From TrEMBL:
The keyword Ion transport does not apply. Pfam families: HMA. Residues 1-69 form the HMA domain. GO terms for molecular function: ATPase-coupled monoatomic cation transmembrane transporter activity; metal ion binding. GO terms for cellular component: membrane. It comes from the Bacteria. Keywords: Metal-binding, Translocase. The keyword tRNA-binding does not apply. This is Heavy metal transporter. InterPro entries: Heavy-metal-associated_CS, HMA_dom, HMA_dom_sf, P-typ_ATPase_IB.
Length: 73
């Protein structure tokens, strides 16, 4: 299953790279990519694990970049 979220307030390419790398480390994430130009994060994982993973994505983004808000795309 693939899920896309918007990273509102993402204004730094290095920050996008940090977020992408951290999301890839979350247990159960098969693939993750951040497009800095569109400020969208795409995550692939098993459907059953997606709710937990999305919660961890939000927590990870808040931890790394407190000014960035994760929104449904």
């Amino acid at each position: 299953m693939k899920k896309t979220v918007k990273l509102e307030g993402l204004d730094c390419a290095n920050c996008a790279m940090k977020i992408e790398q951290a999301i890839k480390e979350i247990s159960g994430v098969e693939e993750a990519s951040v497009n800095f130009m569109t400020t969208k994060l795409k995550v692939s994982a098993e459907r059953a694990q997606m709710p937990r993973i999305l919660d961890e994505v939000i927590a990870t983004v808040q931890n790394l970049e407190p000014d960035v808000v994760v929104m449904k795309a």
